[in-house]
Specification:
The protein has about 90 residues and is an all-alpha fold. The protein is built from three helices and no strands. About 85% of the residues lie in helices and about 0% in strands.
């Protein structure tokens, strides 16, 4: 085995490792985003249910439909609080 063959093997390993690194970065970033959206959706959904259960005694209600689910899923608790404020201000006016 001469030096040219060893250098070629080293370069092939380096390119393979770089390819694995970049493919890993390519797939990990969307997985993190999906996991964050999933966690926001679960927490926001639980908050929606709690608001509807407890808030029903005080006349506070947030409808559970596709729009409120999307807002809650994307924005999480701040989105739920924003909808709560929006719907209550709208009913007061």
């Amino acid at each position: 085995m001469d030096f040219g063959m060893e250098a070629g093997i080293f370069v092939a390993y380096a390119v393979g490792l770089l390819a694995i690194y970049f493919l890993g970065r390519l797939f990990i970033l969307p997985i993190k985003t999906i996991a964050k959206l999933l966690l926001n959706g679960i927490v926001g959904g639980v908050v929606l249910v709690i608001i509807n259960l407890i808030g029903g005694n005080f006349g506070i209600f947030l409808p559970v439909n596709i729009i409120t689910a999307l807002i809650t899923g994307i924005l999480g608790i701040p989105g739920t609080v924003g909808m709560l404020i929006f719907f209550n201000l709208q009913s007061l006016l």
